[in-house]
């Protein structure tokens, strides 16, 4: 373990000593690992230890459970602590409703028990590296005075950095464009003060709905953007859907008039198989999808796929995430035994889980696999 990693420690929180030791055994060669037996113990550690860079936490624990810990961290007065990546360790007993609740509270990601070494190491590495890059960028970020979101110039700067990171590490990358529908009508009819109140409220809903590591910006009067690094297309759509639903509940009552606030939304989640692609290209893709959403009517979400004539439409309610949970060790054993019960879906899911490890090994060991990795990403996500 390098001295460098002492400044990027991993905190594992679980009331099961067996689970904690399993995680330590997997991570200890590459990371400095700190243990906590419940949320209360973890909170004390986070308060005094500024070297912790990512947290893996169970949900069901005595004294303070994972829900309470997550809420406490996200409401911390220290802005660095409040943005700590928190990956929730889930078991088979956790329902989709439970996962939605922890996402609402600000969870960064999930990992299932029993976890495998590849997933645990890759999640720790990806979130630590990305957090370090974001912290350095935030020092020079310019903010919009009304909403507190990034300005357009800062958003493009951070977007270029995030894209470069995604290319280097073969991670996911989603860019979103939001416009408030018919906002000019509100501005003309009700004036600047009311319009600015709406914009500030919409910005707060974007902040509440996004994950901690996501990057939000105000690009113009009623134009917003969101960048979701290290998030697959399905996970990104869950976040976008949540934000759009919250905005759609806003209603402006002025006398007898009721104005329903809604977003038109364009999404692009590119497969980064072209090393020449630049952030401005992806921004244009999101704009193309957004313009189709505007043309098709209020409240539409349009996802860009491969060209101007190839987009798919959704309403916020129709977006969902599904990924086959697999145990890599179990898959390998079954394949070694030529067990025919392994489905194509399970095999594809296993390959997706292994990609971060393959990418990391390629970077460290100079294996020359970058084109192969990009090809695998393209095939496995389509």
Automatic annotation (TrEMBL):
CDD domains attached to this UniProt entry: GGDEF (cd01949)
Domain of life according to the entry: Bacteria
A biological process term (GO) from this entry: phosphorelay signal transduction system
The keyword Ligase is assigned to this record: no
Span of domain GGDEF: 171-306
Organism listed in the record: endosymbiont of Galathealinum brachiosum
Protein name: Diguanylate cyclase response regulator
Keyword set, alphabetical order: Phosphoprotein
Coiled-coil features, chain-numbered ranges: none
Domain Response regulatory positions: 9-128
InterPro entries: Bact_response_regulator, CheY-like_superfamily, GGDEF_dom, Nucleotide_cyclase, Rev_trsase/Diguanyl_cyclase, Sig_transdc_resp-reg_receiver
